[in-house]
Amino acid sequence: MLESTTGIYFASELLQLLRDGQPRTRSELAAATGLSRSTVAQRVDELMGVGLIASLDAAASTGGRPSARFQLNTDRWLIIAIDLGAKHCTVGLTSLRGDVIVSERYATEVSAGPEPVLEEAVATAMRLIEDTGRSVRDVAAVGIGLPGPVEFATGRPENPPIMPGWHHFDTPGFIRERIDVPTLVDNDVNIAALGERALSPDGGDDMMFVKVSTGIGSGIISGGRLQRGSRGIAGDIGHVRVASGRPVRCHCGNIGCLEANASGPAIIEQLNAKGLEIGTNAEIVARAREGNFLVAQVLRDAGRMIGEVLTTCVSVVNPATIVIGGSLSAAGEHLLAGIREHVYANSVPLAAEGLIIVQSRAASTVGVVGAGILAAEHVLSVPYVEEQLRLLRATAS
Amino acid sequence: MLESTTGIYFASELLQLLRDGQPRTRSELAAATGLSRSTVAQRVDELMGVGLIASLDAAASTGGRPSARFQLNTDRWLIIAIDLGAKHCTVGLTSLRGDVIVSERYATEVSAGPEPVLEEAVATAMRLIEDTGRSVRDVAAVGIGLPGPVEFATGRPENPPIMPGWHHFDTPGFIRERIDVPTLVDNDVNIAALGERALSPDGGDDMMFVKVSTGIGSGIISGGRLQRGSRGIAGDIGHVRVASGRPVRCHCGNIGCLEANASGPAIIEQLNAKGLEIGTNAEIVARAREGNFLVAQVLRDAGRMIGEVLTTCVSVVNPATIVIGGSLSAAGEHLLAGIREHVYANSVPLAAEGLIIVQSRAASTVGVVGAGILAAEHVLSVPYVEEQLRLLRATAS
Question: Where are the domains of chain B?
């Protein structure tokens, strides 16, 4: 009947306590938790055994000096973070804290299908690991963002429109045949939302990240948690019908979708129809920056249509911050001005009060940061740590 | 950098463990948690001291038989649950588990202002307490649902349109002058969502509750948690503009809102304009049940407009279930058919797949159940229990 209960996993909660980064002695851990001295000693040994915590004093060993202090072993492990777009891929290595150690961006075609695209990403990760003098055995997990809907529980894409050959592809299975570690897969806007949140000065507990690029989508963090919904597609605003849009057919099969009216391809089509030859999102951005009036006008109209859908989101989700990212967000004020114009003019006062709409600060790296956090969260989560400890005990006995 | 950390409050986590209802001995509690025997004994005494757990064996006392078993003391406490509507109020008493012990519904006018309305609710609760042979000292908390936006953190209504005199009224302060216990206040659709969830066979972890009555609003449970948003007004769908609606002015000042097109008063106005004299929501329901074709038609149109807004919600929130409640939901299939028609025809396939849209099963009591759960959750929450234990220790020393 009650709304929620707290899972009780005292063994790994010591680790949760240490996630604040502060080193603590065994006595401090016992005092902070109420656990018995012997339980703390045993748990500390186990968590050191699976490499998740380390002693600050290199000489300290099991049963060593009572003053030895322990902390989260963030640098022991690597996370492979992969942010895959329609036409590019960024592969990075991060720590368990989510800090990016190294990253590399290269051109690719997601439409080539899962095997060659993921094979190249894994090869790039392997090379980065070697370049930094580390070993593949240091990899704790892999986090991947894909440019389409993903069933989060299985890591399989679900009818992704721009990803032929990827439908229901077992992405974690493919990765684990090469690197046998937990592999977390989510859509690119969700991992971007996690990345933006990590970079957010206000904590980002109630934040929407909106990607405006070849597609349009959003990732929603509400009450401090990423919202996935029942099928993992919460935030899928690209296929909401816009009343102020043209009744054009969308690649999804429906008519008048936001994406068919305000995405990069839709803007290109409108500009071409007005006699301006433009072929890519990058050209839209370049022309907008040059001050082209036609481009500014079409971008502002696109912004108003995105604003129409976001106005409903403001009522439904009530975010504190909306972050506009994706390649077209770099076009400057025109898109943002159209969004702000519609949202502030049409939202209910209480929801609009204090609402901030800003441009993403970290468009190119935010996906890798988010993919790293997605995977690190899993490695440090209570159920996963409990499983590791169980395996350790089974091996020991 | 990381997404979330677990708050560590080992003292009250014993209580969280006992929330499953299963009685346990001190040794079992020590084994299940890893806490030392002395810590467990001390915590058990403290939790008994604040009356939140009880021994199954009445003769067991501090330091008593080692086989004494302890469980959550749900029947020791009462929750006063108040569900206030525009023209009626339901006052109930519930247990800490959310079971309704007794409830009473009576006519009132929320527009009379906060003092007389709340005074009457408190008097009703006092009488119910006396009638059931209990004492006001058994009351652990009060939960209240109000028919308008509420800032949850302070319990103050925020410019509620149908509640003159209530703006920023210190509802918890008023209650605590009469019964000095924690008082939780939320809007009526959020508490209805909590109540529906408690009655939901599938757990209701991803559920939207939609109220269609004099006003239109929704309460959203996503990932198992009630979503309030940054200002507590998440789910406020009544003032979303509907493209298929008439451009009528809403009482909120905006034009074309869902509420101005599909609420009880809007339906009455449309029926009157067509020559059918109807004055109340109850009459709409009665005529619909009689099979009046005009009423059926207007209800179905209203359903389509509600469906238009819900289609966007299906993409943004991705619920598994949408429950339609409020006084007009009793009109039968016409409203529901209009909603289903629009949502299933226009939602993205992955979100619509498996989506269930149903009529509320418990329209009249669901608010009291939800208000009880809202308050009981607070009483059993880690921060509140910790505070109680601190006060107990301060008194003891």
Answer: 10-75, 77-192+366-379, 202-359
CATH superfamily label, A77-192+366-379: ATPase, nucleotide binding domain (3.30.420.40)
A260: tokens are 């068919």
| Residue A370 · residue A145 · CB < 8 Å | yes
Residue A118, classified by CB atoms within 10 Å of its CB into exposed (0-12), middle (13-18) or buried (19+), is: buried
Cα–Cα distances (Å) from B245 to A238, B250, B265, in that order, read: 22, 12, 15
Q: Which CATH architecture has domain A201-359?
A: 2-Layer Sandwich (3.30)
Domains B10-75 and B77-192+366-379 share a fold: no
Rounded to 5°, angle at Cα A95 from A20 and A224:
50
**Interface predicted TM-score (ipTM) of this complex, two decimals:** 0.86
Read off the pLDDT band of B31 (50, 70, 90): confident
Both structure tokens of B173: 């302060």
Question: Which tokens is B336 given?
Answer: 């529901």
CA dihedral (A231, A237, A239, A241) in degrees, to 10, reads 130
CATH label, A10-75, candidates 1.10.287.3510, 1.10.287.70, 1.10.10.10, 2.60.40.1120: 1.10.10.10
How many Å lie between the alpha carbon of A216 and the closest alpha carbon of chain B?
Answer: 13
Strand partners, B93: B80, B102
Average pLDDT over residues A344-363: 87
Contact B239 A6 (CB under 8 A): no
Q: Which residue in chain A is spatially nearest to B256 when comparing CA positions? A: A346
Band (pLDDT 50/70/90 cuts) for residue A317 is very high
Contact B13 A11 (CB under 8 A): no
**Range B202-359 has CATH code 3.30.420.40:** yes
| CA-based end-to-end distance of chain A | 40
Q: Which residue has the tokens 């290109």?
A: A268
Using CA atoms, how far residue B26 sits from A2, A10, B18, B35, B69, in Å, is 24, 16, 12, 10, 7
pLDDT tens by residue, B36-55: 788 788 888 888 888 999 99
Q: What pLDDT score was predicted for residue B274?
A: 95
- DSSP string over A235-254: T-GGGSBPTTS--PBPTTS-
Contact B316 A318 (CB under 8 A): no
Structure-token pair, residue A69: 């202090």
Per-residue pLDDT tens for B191-247? 999 999 988 877 889 999 999 998 899 999 999 999 999 988 899 999 999 998 999
Contacts A–B by Cβ distance under 8 A: 233
Q: For residue B55, what are the β-bridge partners?
A: B70
Phi, psi of A65 (to 5 degrees): -55, 135
Give the Cα separation of B241 and A256 in Å (integer): 17
